[in-house]
Amino acid sequence: MKVAVVGKGGSGKTTTSAVVARTLARHGLSVVALDCDSNPNLGISLGVGDEQTERLVAMREALDEGGEEHAPGWDQLLSRFGSDAPDGVRLAVVSRIENPEPG
After folding, report:
1. Across residues 25-46, what is the average pLDDT?
2. Alpha-carbon torsion (14, 33, 61, 63), positive or negative
3. In terms of pTM, does the model score above 0.70?
């Protein structure tokens, strides 16, 4: 299952995403949360903290500036650019996903 949360700025997308991700994970589902926002704060809402969220944002910025290589696949993306969040949620801050795997 893939869930996307979209809407107008300030409508609660980040908070809603964090609640849904942690709730699904607490029910035993494998959850990967991708923060694609231009102002990524999902890490804070998920509970990984300011320092870890800033680390993930800095990694995304390095990718955008060409200082870091893109991950060639899903597993590499999570191992190189991901972080563990509470309740078993896995978080990554991304700018875009090239050649997404279907399903």
Report:
1. 93
2. negative
3. yes
